[in-house]
Amino acid sequence: MPDRIPLVLGPGLMNDKRLWEHQFAHLADIADMTMVDTTKDDSLVDMAKRMLEAAPPEFAYAGLSMGGYMAFEMMRLAPGRVTKLALLDTSARDDPPERTAVRKEMIGLAEAGDYDTVKKNSLPILLHPDRVDDPTYVDIAYGMADRIGPKVFIQQMTAIMNRRDSRPILGDIDTPTTVICGRQDQGTPLEVSEEMAEMIPNARLCVVEDCGHLSTIEQPEAVTALLRDWLTYD
After folding, report:
1. Per DSSP, what are the bridge partners of residue 62?
2. Which of 51, 76, 137, 224 has the most CB atoms at less than 10 Å from its CB?
3. Which residues pair with 59 in a beta bridge?
4. How many C-beta neighbours within 10 Å does residue 233 have?
5. What mean pLDDT value characterizes the chain?
6. Global confidence as pTM
């Protein structure tokens, strides 16, 4: 299907392709999808460079959480290649000191061989409060984390906590942009999505109800519908 839109998907911390499972299944009629490899680098700039090397000359990009942080580095490096931009459950801010301290503690646990505690402590950040004990969602979150593994987790966490403040470049983004956020997102609260939508010219903010940080998994039908609309509107 040569008329399909090239769509690159950026995962979050400890996420694999399962993060985008519903989108791969239900956007295939309009999008030719690939996912960024975030397992080889410990900086967002290097992740973005690797993504750009593998991506088509022009493409739509949707990134969740860490995938959104990569988007801002990509927009610094090659803004003209992005035809459409979707920012899901992410932030343009740099890491606040209190979050960096927590990240360093989690890295210490992973380095000490206690990755199980890392996974357990991540659940309240990743999932809606009503889902942190739901085996359906916990199994998905743990399964992705296990496939990523502690070594890659440390690399990704290092990249995230060293990210730059991207708010100064938001006003320069002239790509059609949709900002999506779960109403109950604890990892990147709604206020930071509202901030991005206000600062990016003509951006559209979409709030997903009854949803935490992993919006593509917690409310897959709603997010897929929003992404379909984003891909197809002019």
Report:
1. 9, 86
2. 51
3. 82
4. 10
5. 97
6. 0.96
